[in-house]
Automatic annotation (TrEMBL):
<dbReference type="InterPro" id="IPR025711">
    <property type="entry name" value="PepSY"/>
</dbReference>
<feature type="region of interest" description="Disordered">
    <location>
        <begin position="85"/>
        <end position="107"/>
    </location>
</feature>
<protein>
    <submittedName>
        <fullName>PepSY domain-containing protein</fullName>
    </submittedName>
</protein>
<feature type="domain" description="PepSY">
    <location>
        <begin position="39"/>
        <end position="96"/>
    </location>
</feature>
<feature type="signal peptide">
    <location>
        <begin position="1"/>
        <end position="23"/>
    </location>
</feature>
<dbReference type="Pfam" id="PF03413">
    <property type="entry name" value="PepSY"/>
</dbReference>
<feature type="compositionally biased region" description="Basic and acidic residues">
    <location>
        <begin position="96"/>
        <end position="107"/>
    </location>
</feature>
<keyword id="KW-0732">Signal</keyword>
Amino acid sequence: MHRYSKLSFLAIVVFTCGAAAYAARNGAESDVLAASKARIPLTQAIMAAERHANGKAIRAEYEHASLGWAYAVAVASGGKVLDVRVDPDSGTVVSSREDKADRDERD
């Protein structure tokens, strides 16, 4: 449980810093507004992604893609990095794929 407390704190700090950086850009107010309307918190999205990929989150953000807003969580699992997208309203994993760009170049 203590591990999730640290992870939750880190996620909140990362999300807050990211939101502030986005707000500093022109037109980014809509990004921050969209993030504030998410029904589930970033910490819950991270936990869902970690369970799905059976690994540890290394990066997470709230982003807009062609299918709409979602949490994008990078999870390290078994020597791979998986990009897991989590629905911000239901907290369910909507997609997962290996991120070959994050692989160690020595492989």
